[in-house]
Design a protein that fits this description.
There is one protein chain. A 6-stranded mixed sheet has the order 7-8-9-4-10-11, sandwiched between helices. Strands 1, 2, 3, 5 and 6 form a 5-stranded antiparallel sheet that branches. It starts with a strand and ends in a 6-residue tail after the last helix. By secondary structure, the chain is an alpha/beta fold. Helix 2 crosses helix 4, helix 2 runs parallel beside helix 5 and helix 4 crosses helix 5. The chain is globular, with a radius of gyration of 18 Å. Helices cover 33% and strands 23% of the residues. The protein has 2 domains: 170 residues, Rossmann fold; 78 residues, no CATH class. The chain contains 9 helices and 11 strands. GO terms for molecular function: ATP binding. Keywords: ATP-binding, Nucleotide-binding, Transport. This is ABC transporter ATP-binding protein. InterPro entries: AAA+_ATPase (IPR003593), ABC_AA/LPS_Transport (IPR051120), ABC_transporter-like_ATP-bd (IPR003439), ABC_transporter-like_CS (IPR017871), BCA_ABC_TP_C (IPR032823), P-loop_NTPase (IPR027417).
Length: 257
C-alpha cells in the first residue's frame, strides 16, 4: 500500500478573528503517494488558503504540514520546492516580456521565481540538456509551437498550460494545481485532462482545487470537501456525489448520482 506523502495535521489559520482554515479543532487529512486528490468546496471554503499553508506562502496559526516525512515548519518557504512540491496559482504567474521557453528556464533555475532571478539572468546560460528538458515539458502541455513567442501573446488557457510546464521541469513529487481549468476553453480542457491523467498514471501525486466538478470527478480518485475551512467529507468521487452532507451543502441534487 502506498505511504502518506503529505500529512495535514490539526491545521488552523486565523486572520484576526476570522477562522479561515480549521475552525476550532483544526483541519486534518492525508494524501497517499501516487494518488489524485480533488479539493472542492463553496467559495470561501478555504481551499486556496490550505494550498498556501501547504506550500509555505502562509504560516499556520496552529497545526503542521508534513511532506515526505519532513515537518515544513522547519523549512523556509523558498526551500519547500526543493523537497519536491510544485504549485500553480489561481492567477497564472509569468514574466510577460520573456519567451515561453525562457519562462520555463527561469523556473528551473530558481525556486523563488521572482524578479531578482530574472535580473540575475542565470537562465540565459542554461546547459543544452536543461533546454531540451524545458522544450520537452512544453511539448507535453501542447506549447511546442510557441517556444520562441513572447508570453504576452498566449491566451489565458495557454498561460495555464505554461504554469504546468514550469512545474514539470522540476520533476515534483507532488503537484498542487489551483483552478487549472479557469479560463481554459473546452478543447484545452480535454488536453489538460489527458496531461493530468498521464501524470497520475506515471505515479505523480496530484492535488487539484477545481470548481469544474465534471472535469475533476472524471479524473480524480479521491475528493476532499471543505466547508468554512473545515473538513466536510472525504471519499471517492461516487461517494462524494451521494453524500447527503455534500449534496445539501455544495453539490445540489443535479450532481447526485
Amino acid at each position: 500500500m502506498s505511504s502518506d506523502l503529505l500529512v495535514v495535521e490539526n491545521l488552523r489559520k486565523q486572520f484576526g478573528g476570522l477562522k479561515a482554515v480549521g475552525g476550532d479543532d483544526g483541519l486534518s487529512f492525508s494524501v497517499k503517494e501516487g494518488s489524485f486528490v480533488g479539493l472542492i468546496g463553496p467559495n470561501g471554503a478555504g481551499k486556496s488558503t490550505t494550498f498556501n499553508l501547504i506550500s509555505g506562502v502562509l504560516e499556520p496559526t496552529a497545526g503542521r504540514v508534513v511532506l515526505a516525512g519532513t515537518d515544513l515548519a522547519n523549512v523556509r518557504s523558498s526551500d519547500i520546492a526543493s523537497l519536491g512540491l510544485g504549485r500553480t496559482f489561481q492567477t497564472p504567474r509569468a514574466f510577460m516580456s520573456l519567451s515561453v521557453l525562457d519562462n520555463v528556464l527561469v523556473g528551473a533555475k530558481s525556486s523563488g521565481e521572482n524578479l531578482r532571478s530574472v535580473l540575475l539572468g542565470g537562465w540565459r546560460s542554461s546547459e543544452p540538456a536543461l533546454i531540451e528538458k524545458a522544450k520537452a515539458a512544453l511539448t507535453r502541455v501542447g506549447l511546442e509551437d510557441r517556444v520562441t513567442e513572447t508570453v504576452s501573446n498566449l491566451s489565458g488557457g495557454e498561460l495555464r498550460m505554461l504554469e504546468v510546464a514550469r512545474q514539470l521541469i522540476r520533476d515534483p513529487k507532488i503537484l498542487l494545481l489551483d483552478e487549472p481549468t479557469a479560463g481554459v476553453d473546452p478543447s484545452l480542457q480535454g488536453k489538460l485532462s489527458k496531461i493530468l491523467t498521464d501524470l497520475h498514471k506515471e505515479g505523480r501525486t496530484l492535488i487539484v482545487v477545481e470548481h469544474n466538478l465534471h472535469f475533476l470527478f472524471s479524473i480524480a480518485d479521491q475528493i476532499i470537501v471543505l466547508q468554512q475551512g473545515e473538513l466536510l467529507s472525504s471519499g471517492t468521487p461516487q461517494e462524494i456525489k451521494t453524500d447527503p452532507k455534500v449534496v445539501a451543502a455544495y453539490l445540489g441534487d443535479e450532481h447526485a448520482a
